[in-house]
Amino acid sequence: MSKPQIDIPTGGAPQDLVIEDLVVGDGAEAVPGGMVEVHYVGVDFETGEEFDSSWDRGGSIEFPFSGLIEGWQEGIPGMRAGGRRKLIIPPEKAYGPAELGQDLSGRTLVYIIDLISVN
Question: 69-107: b or e for each residue (b if 16 or more CB lie within 10 Å)?
């Protein structure tokens, strides 16, 4: 697969985590507590501005679920390798309220994640 374009839905940001399979994979299933290798793109829901992309860094990333934001910990399990999934993550399941002072705090984030492998 190639780097995806993210189309931001119209209307207000959702209050709960939204999980949408764009491509259903047929490989191993991601499970909580495991390791995953992914490619991803993240954009701000409000502005549509891209803030991160493994594609732009030239390589996929591997990490344990325990190190991920809550929206990824809830949104990736059940996904199968070879799949592509869109997650729309409210601030509470991402980087918290704006008062926390991180660049992405207080923002609803949209990710498209390609699950390459499960380890």
Answer: bebbebbbbebbbbbbbbbbbbbebbbbeeeeeeebebb
Residue found under tokens 């601030």:
91
> 48: left (phi > 0), else alpha (psi -120 to 50), else beta?
left
Question: Residue 90 corresponds to which tokens in the numbers above?
Answer: 């409210």
Residues of the chain below pLDDT 70: none
The verdict on domain 18-118 having CATH code 3.10.50.40 is yes
Find all residues with CB under 8 Å of 23, minimum gap 6, and list them. Answer: 1, 82, 83, 84
Q: What is the pTM of this model?
A: 0.93
